[in-house]
Amino acid sequence: HPPSFQMGETSGLRPAICRAKGAAPGFKVAILGAAGGIGQPLALLMKMNPLVSVLHLYDVVNTPGVTADVSHMDTGAVVRGFLGPQQLENALTGMNLVIIPAGVPRKPGMTRDDLFKINAGIVKSLSEGIAKCCPNAIVNLISNPVNSTVPIAAEVFKKAGTFDPKRLLGVTMLDVVRANTFVAEVIGLDPREVDVPVVGGHAGVTILPLLSQVKPPCSFTPKEIDYLTDRIQNGGTEVVEAKAGTGSATLSMAYAAVKFADTCLRALRGDSGVVACAFVASEVTELPFFASKVRLGRTGVEEVYPLGPLNEYERAGLEKAKKELAASIEKGVSFIRK
Ligand code: NAI
């Protein structure tokens, strides 16, 4: 492929700029890892999002095909593809939002931490690109282990002098999506009516659903609490095992990623009262990063909400979560500092 192919604007009959100018006003969004299991359905769904005017698809393999395919959808966003590290800077320049599902997924028997070796380096190099080319973009980091990759990105941005804690968000939305689904099943409601705060982090016991704060208010038996907590914490593993070595959650993750990205874009547009759970720089606990409800605005995370009243079960869960989280955060930080 030519050094900078731009699929979706290939007719050559009129300059590409005409189309970009004519496109609906909206935000410029890049997906890094766009040809992967999450990246492809995520590209599809972002191409359908009316808040997106330009969609950049970047990967180290297969972006030409994905870009050609998605670019034929008759929705507003102009799609461009970028292939390999030499095109990363073009992919990132001018972006308002960067979504990162790049990296290897789990296989049965693996924890998210087992992915650290490969994914830490990938997140490091992509973060360096962001610091250089779009330091003001909002970053939605999906690559696992999120509990370590977010601290890695933060350290890279600090080194470059571009770190703004308001703009770096680890995506934990899939935990919330799963929690809403499983809780709705137990209490017999439509999942769209259920809102479960999930705090802590994004791996095993660090995933802490606050079942005492479910909306609409409802109560659970101790047996239901054990079942729901375990299923929400191990929802990812449930999918990894069902896929039997072919990958981890991709479709529900793409859905969750778009739900989260759309939330960020509505906040950037200036909508008020935009709230979601995310893994962010935080003073809610003594840890430097923690997932909790945050309020988003034009500048990113504008308020990190406290955890609210926890019951005894949740307080015990929180202590366990913090112990594991502290180690995962430290692992990410020292990967860059060393
Ligand atoms: P996949 O292997 O299907 O796709 C990953 C893509 O990343 C591939 O297309 C690969 O070429 C690309 N890639 C590798 N190195 C890259 C680089 N340096 N720059 C750009 N792209 C690069 O994996 P899948 O299933 O899409 O998962 C991606 C990541 O998302 C994994 O780390 C997985 O653990 C994580 N994940 C996170 C979840 C969350 O809730 N935050 C949920 C599910 C998965």
UniProtKB/TrEMBL annotation:
The record's keywords, sorted A to Z, are:
Glyoxylate bypass, NAD, Oxidoreductase, Peroxisome, Transit peptide, Tricarboxylic acid cycle
Whether NAD counts among this entry's keywords is yes
| Domain Lactate/malate dehydrogenase C-terminal residue range list | 172-335
Lactate/malate dehydrogenase N-terminal domain ranges (all copies)? 28-170
Oligomeric form and interacting partners = Homodimer.
Which family is annotated?
A: Belongs to the LDH/MDH superfamily. MDH type 1 family.
Q: What is the protein's name according to its record?
A: Malate dehydrogenase
